[in-house]
Design a protein that fits this description.
Number of strands: 2
Number of helices: 4
Shape: globular
Number of domains: 2
Structural class: alpha+beta
Distance between the termini: 42 Å
Helix content: 25-40%
Strand content: 5-15%
Largest sheet: 2 strands, parallel
Low-confidence stretches: 114-118
Order of helices and strands: HHEHEH
Length: about 120
């Protein structure tokens, strides 16, 4: 940010919050994924980088804990990953996701693995 990067601090808000609201019409403080998570009814894996500077790991864990206990769910922390690079780290994320999908996602009737899109 430039020399005026703290110009919104006087009002108790961050510049990023103002820009986000201006671009989307939604205040960041009004976004609450945990409220939506309670309605999920399919197996869910939540993946979070432990170096994420955009979303605190505590927020990711809150989301995970908000998922219903009645569904299969898994938490996976990716060491060294930030917000947008969980797939390009030394962590074997692809293997964990593949195992997860094979265990919890079954083909619909008439589908076969050979006919699945690639």
């Amino acid at each position: 940010m430039g020399a005026n990067s703290d110009r919104f601090a006087t009002y108790g808000v961050k510049e990023a919050d103002v820009v986000f609201a201006w671009k989307t019409g939604v205040k960041i403080s009004e976004i609450n994924p945990a409220q939506k998570a309670v309605k999920i009814r399919i197996p869910t894996m939540v993946v979070h980088g432990d170096s994420d500077k955009s979303v605190p790991i505590a927020a990711g864990k809150k989301l995970y804990k908000s998922l219903p206990d009645s569904i299969a769910k898994q938490w996976l922390t990716v060491p060294g990953a930030g917000h947008n690079n969980v797939l390009v780290t030394d962590n074997p994320l692809s293997a964990a996701m593949g195992e997860w999908m094979l265990k919890h996602i079954t083909p619909q009737s008439g589908d076969s693995p050979a006919s699945a899109p690639r």
